[in-house]
Design brief:
With 594 residues, the protein is mainly alpha-helical. 60% of the residues lie in helices and 5% in strands. It is built from 26 helices and 6 strands.
């Protein structure tokens, strides 16, 4: 009787095991650190990310695109108006997320149409900055799929990435875009491991917000699907060859064979997918219809945009196919080099399918964007995220490889720390110098004589240099500084405010802008009620006139002796650089001169 009972229990146990297997991948068997140490390390990385992204957010003047986005936000907050325009602008999510805080202030303190309501450079840039930090937080959710070392390494590399930091301090769509992309991946992985409806709903919401952020969502989703398909094909190949059979390994069949059963059966799975699809459509419609204030036109425009931007992608910002590789070598060499090593490792020594997926995602996305003529530095953020993940895989492989040589755990940590210090220290400076020189034969001839500044050997210096020192320097070393507003523009704004004080008119001070180039000035002049953006010469009696340098003779001929050009100690010539190739002049009525 005893034997029969044991046999029955064993058979039942095996049956239950077949129905509910441990999802792939299994938890790491090599405990590299205690849970407390992991939490402390994760917290330290997040702290670094927060400081780099939130410190002195107003230091860098608004870019042209930030000024445009800020203009949309001001109108949304003050007038409650926003309608999606598919012709020139991206999706609505950034405006509605950025409007939440000002709207709360508006509710609490009244509805004065010209009130500030927290519409400051720091406040609006906090939105992408916080999404940038949250993206790093999502990486920690992948520990089970990549490993402890891989997730901590990926998070650290992304936290100090020059481009990730720079673009997180920009009031543009990119940081939100990559957060929602990674959100889709994490939510679907969690759903596969534990088929609860909440994860599928989170994936649906992330997908809807991704499409409501930027039209390039189509590219990202297509690459994710291709990467998933190739990963599955590779799994099938390894299963067929019997190359690996270890439980939880790359070749495990068990999780796929029982997923539908773990999800509650086919009927429940279909119902859950239908619910997720309805939620996707609801969120998509809400944002593009401007919460039904522009329905159905906003929905029609959201579909029309793909036709418009397909044409734009063939006409504007055209660069050669290898451009992104050169850009990454100059400012993201740790991610590119470690990512390339990781991609080779996961192909030759497959262990975790998500590691292979990350490599395919990173380099597949890079290839997709490289094939498109339209290229801007901020688009590279989309593949910086998966590059960080696959770079983390390289660090995990290096750490585990040292264990095979019977090197102690402490020594392995020292070796890993050394690799990271080199990766974020001398490596970026050396590689970017070579990459910049190699792109120009004349520079290459003088490469031997190139002197590399000692500061480039300091870990993290490249990030500090780009974000807090040379943030408006558009030479070949700073690829993210792309037609950026010069810091002298803030001095121009200060001069305008001083003239307004002397005129004793405050926000009612009249300003006539005859320069055809003026963005992001509308953001900085948002509290002035009487600003005319004419873009050409026009009669005016306002206290302030702003012209482009090549309009100087025309200004003097039109306005005669009534106005005088404003000069300052830093700028005896009286010019205020707006961006490369564009200098502005500030004129004021003579009686208002100091």
């Amino acid at each position: 009787m005893s034997t029969g009972s044991t046999k029955s229990r064993n058979n039942k146990s095996r049956a239950n095991s077949a129905k509910t297997p441990a999802p792939e991948p299994a938890a790491p068997t090599d405990v590299v650190m205690s849970e407390r140490a992991r939490v402390i390390a994760s917290g330290a990385i997040l702290l670094i990310a927060i400081i780099l992204r939130l410190y002195d957010l107003s230091r860098v003047p608004f870019h042209h695109d930030e000024g445009v986005n800020g203009n949309f936000l001001v109108r949304l907050v003050r007038d409650g108006y926003y309608h999606y325009d598919p012709g020139n602008y991206h999706g609505p999510t950034i405006y509605y997320f950025a409007a939440v805080f000002p709207w709360l202030l508006k509710i609490l303190f009244g509805s004065n149409a010209q009130a500030n309501y927290g519409l400051t450079s720091v406040a609006v840039r906090c939105v992408p900055a916080l999404f940038g930090v949250a993206t790093i937080g999502l990486i920690f959710a992948l520990r089970r799929n990549l490993g402890t070392i891989a997730t901590l390494g990926a998070a650290l590399l992304l936290a100090v990435s020059p481009g990730a930091v720079y673009l997180s301090r920009y009031f543009i769509h990119e940081t939100l875009f990559v957060f929602f992309t990674l959100g889709i991946v994490v939510a679907l992985i969690k759903y596969f491991e534990n088929p609860q409806l909440v994860y599928l709903i989170l994936a649906a919401v992330s997908t809807a917000l991704l499409f409501a952020t930027k039209e390039t969502a189509m590219i990202s989703v297509a690459v994710l699907l291709i990467a998933l398909g190739v990963t599955q094909a590779f799994r099938a190949f390894w299963q067929y060859t019997g190359a690996t059979r270890r439980k939880g390994s790359f070749g495990s069949r068990q999780d796929h064979r029982t997923f539908v059963e773990r999800a509650g059966g086919s009927p429940k799975l279909v119902v859950n997918i239908f619910i997720a699809l309805m939620i996707f459509l609801a969120v998509y419609v809400l944002f593009y219809s401007s919460f039904f204030t522009n329905y159905p036109q906003g929905i029609y425009d959201s579909l029309k945009t793909f036709q418009i931007w397909t044409k734009t992608g063939q006409e504007a910002h055209k660069h050669p196919p290898a451009t992104y590789v050169w850009w990454l070598l100059r400012q993201e060499s740790p991610l590119l080099i470690l990512g390339a090593i990781g991609a080779v490792v996961v192909v030759l020594k497959p262990a975790k399918s998500f590691a292979l997926f990350s490599g395919l995602w990173a380099f597949g996305l890079m290839a997709a964007y490289s094939l498109i003529a339209y290229k801007t530095p901020w688009l590279s953020l989309s593949f910086i995220i998966p590059l960080a993940l696959i770079s983390g895989v390289t660090l995990e492989w290096f750490y585990q490889g040292l264990a095979k040589w019977e090197i102690s755990q402490r020594q392995r940590w020292y070796a890993l720390a050394g690799v990271l210090l080199i990766a974020i220290g001398p490596l970026p400076g050396l590689v970017r110098t070579f990459a910049a020189a190699a792109s120009d034969l004349e520079s290459l001839k003088g490469l031997a004589a190139t002197k590399i500044h000692p500061k480039t050997f300091i870990p993290g210096y490249q990030t500090i240099d780009l974000n807090f020192i040379n943030y408006d320097n558009d030479n070949q070393y700073y690829v993210y500084v792309y037609a950026h507003t010069r810091r002298e523009t803030l001095k121009l704004v200060d001069e305008i405010n001083q003239v307004a004080q002397r005129a004793h008119q405050g926000g009612d001070t009249g300003i006539t802008i005859v320069s055809p180039d003026y963005w992001p000035l509308p953001w900085y002049l948002r509290d002035y009620k009487r600003v005319g953006y004419h873009g050409r010469m026009t009669p005016s009696t306002e206290p302030i006139i702003i012209a482009r340098q090549d309009q100087a003779a025309e200004v003097e001929a039109t306005f005669g002796e009534r106005y005088q050009k404003v000069q300052s100690g830093f700028n005896p010539a009286g010019t205020f650089p707006l961006r490369p190739g564009v200098d502005l002049l500030l004129y004021t009525r003579r009686e208002l001169m100091p």
